[in-house]
Amino acid sequence: MQRSLKTFSELARRRRLISLAVAGACATFSAAQAQEAASATDSTTNAPSVIVTGIRASMQSTLNMKRNADGIVDGIVADDIGKFPDTNLAESLQRISGVSIDRSNGEGQKVTVRGLGPDFNLVLLNGRQMPTTDLSDLSGRSFDFSNLASEAISQLQVYKTGRADSPTGGIGATINVMTARPLDNPGMHSSVGVKAVKDTSNDHLPDMLKNQSVTPEFSGIYSNTSEDGRFGVGVSASYQKRASGFNRAGLANGYQGPYLGSDTTAGSTLPQPGQPGAQNITNRPGPTDLYSIPQNFGYGVNAIERQRTNGQLVLQFRPVKELTTTLDLTYSENKIQTKRDELSVWFGQTPTSTSTWPSGHVVSPLTYMETYQTPQDVSVVGGDYATKTQNKSIGFNALWKASPTLRVEFDAHHSTAESGADSPFGSENNLSNASFSRGNTKIDFTHELPVLSMPAADLVNQPIQAAGSWFHNSWEKATVNQAQAKGNLQLFEASNLSFGVGYTDSTNRSTFSNVQNNTWGGATKPSDYPASIFQANPLGSYFNKLGGHDAPELFGSLYTFNFAQLRALTAQATGNAAGYLPNFASADTDRELKEKTSSGYLSFGTDWDTAIPFHSSVGARIERTKVTSVAQVLPGTAVVWVSQNELPITFAGNSYSSQDASYTNVLPSLNLDFDLRPDMKLRASAGSTIGRPRYDQLQGGLTLGTIGNVFTGGTASVGNPALKPVKSKNLDLSWEWYYDQQSVLSLAGFHKKMDNYAGQTVISQSLYDLHTPVGGAYYNAAIAAGCTAADTNCLRNYILSHYDGQPGVQKTGVKSDGNLNGNITGLPTDPLMNFLTTTYANQKSATVKGAEVNVQHMFGRSGFGVQANYTYVTSPTKYDNANTNDQFAILGLSNSANLVGIFENKDWSVRVAYNWRGEFLASTVDGGGRAAPVYTDAYGQTDVSIGYTYNKNLSFQVEAINLTDSTQRQHGRTQAATLNVTQAGPRYMIGARYKF
Fold it and tell me: For labelling, which of 492, 636, 705, 768 has a CA lying 20 to 30 Å from the CA of 320?
């Protein structure tokens, strides 16, 4: 099959126009444009002309974008102006093959592409690098899609292969979020929408925590152009309020261990055969088996209320037809209020335990029970806090058609993202209260919901009193200043040269302060609180989707309280008003990281008239980045043993550090696409991309955990500003068959070889010359007197009663359970405290490979259609659950699948979507700071959307998210080692939309 030079010239011209629209121009796809595309396709396939709208128009425009782009590109196009297919952009992205999402509170938040997690996917807004902040993931690079409403978005573009003109940072993918531009859609277009939202997860909360049952959403978009086509204005705005919740049961600090079955370490392992207590162990792990023991366990309920406000203003001016200028302002605000209550217990790993175990070489208990000589605490914890995230961006773009063969574009923007507390109680806080009435305590892991039983606990006759508390105040701000200039020059008749330069100055600063009261043994008397302050609620009812929620032995009550009231009462009773409020005035930790990147690229593309016509694009991008890290941290000065298991660190003074580093990367790329037939393409791509380390991996400054543990010591973390980015060498192959206007079958394979991966390492070391009383002279005297290492109450009572008034020892009273209260401070003659310190190094390489299969098919003119895809991802770098050393493994690696059924006619549109993501490794460090795997179980969710068009102006829509009420679970080294299970609930929406 041969093509003439004239045909090549026309194809090249069309390709450049489409490529510019996809990559850099402010394009938008409307139903009318889809019709034009359909007509163009019809003319080449001799099919009858069919005018399509709605979902089918979106599908057709998406295929046109995919078909005509350089490299492997997928995307989603809005059905119509102001009408994106999903209520959340991340949930839209998950429909694309190779893309899976992380959910928070039942809503898509961050994306993983081809096995590479959120930090290795770059998100752009209209081709611009966007800053991002997230207090729940302080100093990560991953973009939080829950901050953006979908109403103003015209399309999402997912670039899966490297291109010279693409900014760096996305090894998995570069995701470009495009907003509407008025001059690309001439005339007046506007619509308004309203929705009522019913989130059933809000109904599954205690009455004290419930928010408004039905919440509103409002949106509007307006776009207009002047009659002469020179001026354009676009305005969009939305407001969404959501009341929701989730209930979670689990081990916040993970499991102790793992230990070998032959381990005889005192105070932390099972008794050996023949020793006292061994008779209480059923199917004891063998000498060479690894086993773990639960450290703590709790049930929590969380009520969340969110208000999300988005707005954008776009002004366009085209003084002459060759020059288009655009000024745009974008704003988003996401405010979240959280109320939480928790009931939890701590296991002391006593030798008087009873347990049953499964068979295997790596095991965790099926049941585990501890017996205590003195009453233990039942912890009743509550929090009430709020956060606010704001994103602001102002940008200018000028596109100049300098001549028939030359286009030049300049773009600049200033964008910020800022997150902080929106509550007088800080960004996160907890009041920890306790009843010292717990005797035998058992946890049963054989149910879907782990069942905690403690029959002796009596929170009525042994009233709850204040214990420890902490008030965190986190703040983060990211800024990006960026300028880009690029051009495209047509050479000869079928070739073009693309070129560009850019400069990006980004800053990420985060601060953190903590006000903590370490009165874990009790700080108040029961008489300090009115009897009605703590309200009992039926615990099992909040986990009714999980097996075991109705087990007879389940502890029956979860306690709630008014946080503000209890905080004020506790501050009054203790005479410590300042200790029960966050520190807004100064920060314990203050870190700033600056990255300044200069870049340039050159790319040459041409069409080739060969037996199999093909297009090639070869290019290279060069970047130089300078990194500067400045950090202020709070050094530790003492370790104080204040209660049964807690060793809080005392802090004082400030320490500062500043470090510089730089790196240069040359990133070549080659993209080929072969026209096997007019309706069939074969693509091949090769190139290099980079993914920059997370900010907290780069930021210098040592940070200590605020509380150590008697058995494991303390925790700490420190970044490495000299980390180099991960560099990936990529190979991609894709076969695409466009057998109908709105139908495609495609197969793709990919291979990524990554070097300089920043592996997370946990180092055991002493820090700041901090000494612990555990193992010191007083401690050893208590052991010699008959106390065991596991019985920390016995140890503390002996030291406080025999050495009160001696250096480091201060008895302050007697607790309600008869144990002594007081502080035991580490002395210079005591052992140095051991800290498990998390740090990072460029010492790892990894390979990721996989395949995608994707089909999109419309069944003639029946209105029925289907979208289905499956992605397989694998890597030889896997976590070895039988290995107790620090390990490197790729996080987020999982298979995924989508199945979407579609029906549409002139009145109705129906979409039923099922999304599935396989099990994946979420972390290599557990909640207790230990090197241990955290796996997220496979998860599937069904969403439904039904639309009805009343007339050309008015339409109605009903949506259901998580229709089947799926639950989520995480586990440790074995599938049976439950770490947490989470129940939320379906979300229903009914709305109307009016087009003017």
Answer: 492
Q: Which residue's entry shows tokens 């175990």?
A: 357
Q: What 3-state class would DSSP assign to 543?
A: helix
C-alpha R_g of the chain:
30
pLDDT average, residue stretch 905-910: 92
> CA angle, 916 as apex, 912 and 922 as ends, to 5°?
145
Q: Among 7-16, 63-72, 751-760, 853-862, name the one with the lowest average pLDDT.
A: 7-16
For the domain that residue 494 is a member of, what is the CATH number? 2.40.170.20
Whole-number Å distance between alpha carbons of 689 and 753: 10
Between CA 667 and CA 915 the distance in angstroms is 34
Inform me whether the pLDDT recorded for 914 exceeds 70. yes
Any residues with CB less than 8 A from the CB of 497 and at least 6 apart, and which? Answer: 488, 489, 491, 602, 603, 604, 605
Q: The tokens 């509407």 sit on which residue?
A: 180
Q: Are 718 and 701 in contact (CB under 8 A)?
A: yes
Domain count, the chain: 1
Directed axis angle between helix 5-23 and helix 54-68, to 10°? 120
Give CA–CA dist 929/836, Å, rounded. Answer: 7
Structure tokens at 669: 């790329």
pLDDT tier, 265 (very low <50, low <70, confident <90, very high otherwise):
low
Length of the chain counted residue by residue? 996
Give the pLDDT confidence score for residue 18 in this predicted structure: 40
Q: Give helix 792-802 / helix 777-784 axis angle, nearest 10°.
A: 110
Number of helices (H) and strands (E), helices first, in the chain? 8, 51
pLDDT band at 35 (very low <50, low <70, confident <90, very high): very low
Mean pLDDT computed over 713-717 = 89
Domain-located, residue 679: yes
Q: Measuring CA to CA, which residue among 208, 513, 524 is closest to residue 382? A: 208
Please check whether residue 123 is in contact with residue 130, taking contact to mean a CB–CB distance below 8 angstroms: yes
The confidence score (pLDDT) of residue 58 equals 75
Domain span including residue 902: 5-256+297-346+379-431+469-517+585-769+835-995
H or E element in which residue 231 lies: strand 231-250
For residue 361, being part of any structural domain is answered with: no
- pLDDT at residue 138, rounded to an integer: 65
Q: How far apart are CA 983 and CA 165, in angstroms?
A: 44
**Cα 125 from Cα 328, distance rounded (Å):** 11
Residue 146's identity, in one-letter code, is S
CB 481 within 8 A of CB 128: no
| Residue 528 main-chain phi, psi, to 5 deg | -75, -15
What single DSSP character describes residue 833? P
Look at residue 806 and tell me if it is in a domain.
no
- Give the model's pLDDT for residue 345: 94
Give a yes or no: residue 399 inside a domain.
yes
Query: 0.90 exceeded by the pTM?
Result: no
Record the tokens describing residue 6, joined without a space.
């004239």
Strand pairing partners for 570?
A: none
pLDDT per residue as tens digits for the range 162-193: 889 988 888 988 999 988 899 988 999 999 99
Q: Residues 64-79: what's their mean pLDDT?
A: 82
The angle formed by the CA atoms of residues 9, 14 and 17, to the nearest 5 degrees, is 125
At residue 967, does pLDDT exceed 80? yes
Nearest to 446 by CA among 553, 538, 332: 553
Q: Please give the helix or strand (H or E) that residue 64 lies within, else none.
A: helix 54-68
Each residue's pLDDT tens digit, 333-376? 999 999 999 999 998 766 678 999 999 999 999 999 998 888 88
Q: Is the pLDDT of residue 854 over 70?
A: yes
- What are φ and ψ of residue 787, in 5° steps? -70, 150
- How many other C-beta atoms lie within 10 A of the C-beta of residue 645? 21
Closest to 333 (Cα-Cα) out of 246, 422, 414, 245: 422
Reduced to 3 states, what is the DSSP secondary structure of residue 607? strand
When the pLDDT of each residue in the chain is averaged and rounded to a whole number, the result is: 87
Tell me the C-alpha distance between 50 and 55, whole Å: 14
